[in-house]
Write a structure and sequence with these properties.
single chain, 263 residues, alpha+beta, Beta Polymerase, domain 2, 6-stranded mixed beta sheet, 10 helices, 49% helix, globular
Length: 263
């Protein structure tokens, strides 16, 4: 089965996205303003183990009835026989919040990777997500995302990234974010590489690109740890159930401490 809806290079994913967007538009009607891919499908770092980051722009916040209907719709998409259908992650962005760079403190309705339970979250309501959508976003339906998102000043973007680096480090240090499984440990290494890369370039690129930069720009003592994190990418979500090597956890702590004080 094929489709004329071809936002990505993966035909199976295109069918999932077509079903996703068609159902959203039917439920939301005129409230639906646009849908976009962000994340790795926007900045080019996707592979067969990626999740699928999406954002939907809506004219006003979701009502309880719309939330209920959308939950049923996402459940129908979830059972499509496809890896991609079970790894969708995204948010429903009221246009007035998306357009305002100062409203990143307002939770919006969000679905975590593989979840069918909506939650109010700040996860996608960031300048980083806005930058990716504005500069690299893939249009699934609607107008160019630059219509919704104003230019993001570089220092503002970098300031948010710096704050994320410190806030996440605090959570790791106090134990509220644990690096005790293989997925979390390697994810943290690659994310800190990417965040450092963004601080240098003023752009948000893929984790593999950030890792390649880090291997050449940072102290060579971290290359083996970065290569190890990259090697864990295949079947990445299975790694969540594998305990992390204590020595690699120790090295990851040391690497993050190094990263937040670099250069």
């Amino acid at each position: 089965m094929s489709s004329l809806f071809n936002p990505t290079q993966n035909s199976e994913l295109n069918l999932v996205l077509e079903a996703l967007v068609t159902g959203m538009k039917k439920i939301l009607g005129e409230k639906f303003l646009g849908a976009y891919l962000g994340g790795s499908f926007a900045h080019g770092g996707w592979d067969t183990d990626s999740d699928v980051d999406f954002d939907v722009v809506i004219a006003s916040d979701l009502t309880p009835n719309e939330l209920a209907e959308l939950k049923v719709h996402h459940a129908r998409v979830f059972v499509i026989e496809s890896y991609w259908a079970r790894h969708l992650e995204g948010a429903y962005f009221p246009a007035d919040i998306l357009c305002d760079l100062e409203r990143t403190d307002q939770p919006i309705w969000y679905l975590d990777n593989g979840s069918l339970n909506f939650e109010l979250s700040l996860h996608d309501n960031t300048l980083v997500n806005r930058w990716v959508l504005r500069e690299k976003g893939v249009i699934l339906a609607g107008v160019d995302p630059k219509i919704w998102i104003p230019p993001i000043p570089g220092e503002l973007l970098k300031g948010e990234i710096r704050q994320t680096m410190f806030d996440w480090w605090a959570e790791i240090e106090d134990g509220s974010y644990k690096l005790d499984n293989r997925w979390a440990q390697t994810f943290a290494v690659l994310m800190y590489c990417r965040m450092l890369h963004s601080l240098v370039t003023g752009e948000v690129r893929s984790k593999p690109m950030g890792a390649a930069w880090a291997k050449s720009a940072l102290d060579p003592i971290w290359r083996a740890l970065i290569d190890d994190a990259l090697s864990a990418r295949p079947n990445q979500y299975e790694k969540y159930y594998l305990p992390a090597d204590p020595e690699k956890v120790r090295l990851t702590h040391a690497f993050i401490a190094y990263a937040i004080n670099w250069p």
